[in-house]
Amino acid sequence: MGKIAEKIVKYNKLILLFAVILLVPSIFGYFNTGINYDILSYLPDDLSSTKAEKILTDEFNCGALSMLILENMDNKDITKIKEKVGNIDGVKEILWIDDLVNLSIPKDVLPKDLTDFFYSGENSTMLLIKLEEGTGAEKSLNAVESIRKIASSQAFLSGMSGMLEDTKNLLDTEMPIYIAIAAISILIVLECTVESTIIPFIFLLSLGIAIIYNFGSNVFLGEISYLTKALAAVLQLAVTTDYSIFLLHRYEEEKEVSPNDKNLAMSKAIKNTVTSVFGSSITTFAGFLALCVMDLGLGSDMGIVMAKGVVIGVLCTVTILPSLMLVFDKQISKYKHKTLLPTFSKVSSFVVKHYKKFVISFVVILIPAYFGYTHAGVYYNLTDTLPDSFNSIISTNKMRDDYNMESTNFILVKDSLEAKDLNKMVKEIENLDGITSVMCLEKYIGPAINQDFLPSDITSTLKSGGYEQILVNSEYKAARDECNEQVEKINAIVQKYDKNGLVSGEAPLTYDLIKIASTDFTKVNIVSVIAIFVIIAIIFKSISLPVILVAVIECAIFINLGIPYYTGTIEPFIASIVLGTIQLGATVDYAILLTSRFREERNKGLDKKEAMTVAIKSSAPSILTSALSFFAATIGVGLYSKLEIISSLCTLMSRGALISMIMIIFILPAMLLLFEKVIIKTSKNFLDNKNGNKEGKPVLAGNN
User: Fold this and answer.
1) How far is residue 423's CA from residue 429's CA, in Å, rounded to a whole number?
2) What gap in Å lies between CA 108 and CA 182, rounded to an integer?
3) Which range is least confidently modeled, 331-335, 441-445, 472-476, 635-639?
4) How many Å is the Cα radius of gyration of the chain?
């Protein structure tokens, strides 16, 4: 590593030139990476609901369904709008009352179910719009935008694609502001915590380049989720700022040793920083990568991008950042100011003096924290995360109020199912609580309507690929308990008449999401804890230290995710799954830093209390700077974002950083002091025989 560091220093300007050149393909990759706004599309392919979605897309050319409500229009104007919308690229077909019966037939003689489905009152009617591709496909979102342009102010377009289009538009507007808020916030923290006035800008330039590289390399993934897009840059800024601070501090130390040779000082700083950053970054990397064990594909999406960001951040810290620091060394040294960091002398003495009380407080806090953590409520419905001002939400509320429709489900049964069995199945479904209407071909081929009235394309619309499609509308909102119970009953009825029958739609997909989320929550927590446990065990060659360090951070996680229970706040489901592993991976290096310093001071001959006093005093400023950077990068986004799911995630992450910081500075030292004898016995060479005082007794002043 020493030779590599010397090469980096020698060719620093060439490295910067190469770094600028790499920005070109990275920017190209950024703009050519697809963004997926549909969380439900990340469900596993082997679920019955996702199998049904694939059949609907492949066999019926129905990737998504939208409902267009038109008010105060006569049939002539409605027909014109229908024709225009039908010509939009991405729209497969539109189903309205005129596709089933002649408009000259009075409403009074039509089946009530039919009029109730397509009409509400005297002046409102609904058109069903089938989109060719999936809910979140770019073609579908573009079609939604075109439909809204054609439809007048008297029109309301509901459906998942409309919600995702609104989400996309808002995120495209807010995303640059997220990065600006995070960058400015970190800049303020760094200006207050480092002496150089210029170095924070150098840090942000290096970090910005790393973020562009990370986002540009996402092109090899094809697409990423909108949550990953919104959070990855902010998280990368927050997490990798530490590495820049490590390099700066080491460079300043080496300059004191070699004041007349900045190149030598930097090469030594790079060499030592790689060693320090490796232990810190590997835990963060492992924490993010643990998300990949989720059955929900969103976990792999977020985990890969954020873990990749850590690796790229480390590489840029030891290549681009040193090069920038050498180029601007004069300016960095010239413009300096006093920092606002406290000395932590009183804090360290207080913690060490009362360490047994802090251990007791840890136990007292742990119980209610864990209870809140395990009982906090979460929500799964996408509409609960969107602003009420969205056109899609206004339209969804319109569907609920005027048509008594909250969710629409699709049933697929074999087209060879006898008509009598199909009618029995339909009647059973209609009799379920909350079902407002069921639409199928056989239901309207009877004495009330002559089959000749049905165009031939209607038959192909509802029957294709060996399946018959049935549309079921419900007054229950997806993800609610009553809706989940209804989905279970619909599935049971369908299976009774057709063992290979499938049910899909927003409610069944969300029902499967709920089941998967509960198992993902457990898997991610177990894998992340085991991974970081093993890493800490290897770093310290200890069995007990991983238990202590992970226990303290886990308690911080319990507190953070348990607070919503006591405040009555309902958080998005994804928070309970990903927040724990992110907080664990991103903040456990605080614990490693303090523990390493404690061991170092003990090996210098200090007794355990003196060593811990020094460890807290020397480590706390770095921990504070790191935690405040993480907090600053995320809290601003949390307060600003109008997307509740992003706001909630960022707010939880910012709070988690502060809670972890407090736990590491106050609780961890107490735990290390209390269990020091156990740590020594269960660790290899925690204290060396030459300088270590294994009994923790006072040492002679000369050894200090």
Assistant:
1) 10
2) 61
3) 441-445
4) 31
